[in-house]
Fold this sequence. Notes:
Largest sheet: 9 strands, parallel
CATH class of the largest domain: Alpha Beta
Strand content: 15-25%
CATH architecture of the largest domain: Alpha-Beta Barrel
Radius of gyration: 25 Å
Low-confidence stretches: 1-36
Number of helices: 13
Number of strands: 19
Amino acid sequence: MIRRNFLKTIGTGSLTALYSGKPKGTAPANQVEIGRDGCMDPWVEIDPASIGWNFLRVKRHVKVSVMAVVKANAYGHGLVEVSKTLEKAGADWLMVGKVNEGISLRDAGISCPILNFGPWARQESAELIGHNISQCVYTRDAGFLQEAASKLKKTASVHLDIDTGMGRTGMPYDKALPLIEKIASLSRLRIGGICTTLTEDTEFDREQLRRLLELCSSAKKRGIALGLRHASSSAGILASPEFSLDMVRPGITLYGYYPNARTQKEDTLSLKPALKLKARVVFIKDLAPGDSLSYLRAFKALKKMRVATVGIGYSDGYPPELGGKGFALIRDKRFSMLKAVTANHAMVDLGDDREVEIGDEVVLIDSTPGSGLTADVLAEQCGLSDYRILIGLNPLLPRVQRNIS
Length: 405
């Protein structure tokens, strides 16, 4: 019998008894079902109400259309379910970064407009058109969409990506007009928007905006309809209303965080973090002075101590940089993380605590401000960004929808 079925068979009470010597039915009141679906694997809890709240806070702040950014598995929160929440909340558009993300949303029944901001290959043109996904274009490859649309007897929707200074992708702003005219002349393409990506250097952003608007003016004089103009991500939204144009593209703010430490401290939008990362205690042992833990004896005990092994590691997206710096919550108590984070395990110093048991829930990322375990605090502790903390969570971890705010 495999472990998953074994755990399902014996149930919570029996498992507690197996490890603790307590009879079935005496598990602590705060100990919920052992594992998810009867296993000891880590999982992520997402609060859809918080995501809806954050979206409405952004919408009321900008007073223009909102293209909700759900690329990168909705910043680690779960692409499909988050997109359903945002569509229900009133998102005007959804933005993905890969063709297959857009297709997944259509297959899940999402009907609102979708823009793929990322690249696509010629052979994917028909799929984009067939799934009614708009595509950002910035080269003559837009002709591939014209070709596929002609064969399908349909119209392909495109947004023009202009490089105004980010230097990543896009038509160079000062050389873009001829290509825009060419794209506008293609009978099976419809220009739904024109966009750029701001560098988040506020002063240079204004120059970028000037470049974009000047290009828009030149195109308008030639009778070219450009559709929605959009440039602002979360940073631009908070920097100045002038960047909002016809539509904004919030990302990190939808998930309860801000693009930098200053805006996080100001909390202009009263955002609510929407994610918790949880795991289970899978083993407990006592160390004597001189005992060590993990590869290359990463941690050495200087005194007697009790240590819990938690079933989570960097393969799940838990940053190894938090080893020796962060802490975890078990039974609402703080316990320090030891410098022994591996692919599938992390170690926690239990001190002299004798209440923690195998199977207990461990909170590693919390959504409660002031808990010390929100993604922005963890990011500061380990020298990363909250973007990387959230997006780095393994997409294979189960995402459980739960009202946790």
